[in-house]
């Protein structure tokens, strides 16, 4: 099951005992800071969790899977995430 924003807000509300409106403000502010930082081309490193970074993709050849038509995909920037070793160990049930 995917964790959605409302579940995240509810969890913060219960664990930190903040009103739901304040929990929403905290989450929205955090997400805006992360977005702005990535827009500016900077990395976001959260210790014990991982690192978000922007990667530039070159222009390349592609193919439309429905028609089989060849096309050129434009340059673009994508957000990537690399999890920390600590998080990777927890996911893989290693202590």
Largest sheet, strands/sense/barrel:
3 strands, antiparallel
Q: Over all CA atoms, what is the radius of gyration?
A: 19 Å
User: Count of helices?
Assistant: 3
Give the strand order, joined by hyphens, for the main sheet: 1-2-5
- Which whole number gives the mean pLDDT? 94
**CATH class call of the largest domain:** Few Secondary Structures
Helix/strand-derived class? alpha+beta
Q: Approximately how much helix is present in the residues?
A: 40-55%
CATH topology of the largest domain: HU Protein, Chain A
Strand content: 25-35%
- Unreliable spans are none
End-to-end span in angstroms?
A: 24 Å
Descriptive terms for the model:
alpha+beta, 5 strands, 95 residues, 41% helix, two-stranded antiparallel sheet, elongated
List the helices and strands and how they pair.
Elements: H1 5-16, H2 20-39, E1 44-46, E2 50-57, E3 60-63, E4 70-73, E5 76-83, H3 85-91
Antiparallel strand pairs: 1-2, 2-5, 3-4
Helix pairs in contact: 1-2
């Amino acid at each position: 099951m995917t964790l959605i924003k409302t579940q995240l807000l509810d969890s913060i509300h219960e664990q930190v005992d903040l009103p739901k409106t304040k929990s929403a403000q905290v989450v929205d502010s955090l997400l805006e800071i992360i977005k702005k930082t990535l827009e500016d081309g900077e990395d976001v490193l959260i210790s014990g969790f991982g690192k978000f970074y922007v990667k530039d993709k070159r222009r390349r050849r592609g193919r439309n899977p429905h028609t089989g038509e060849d096309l050129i995909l434009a340059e673009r920037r994508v957000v990537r995430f690399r999890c920390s070793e600590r998080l990777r160990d927890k996911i893989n049930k290693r202590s």
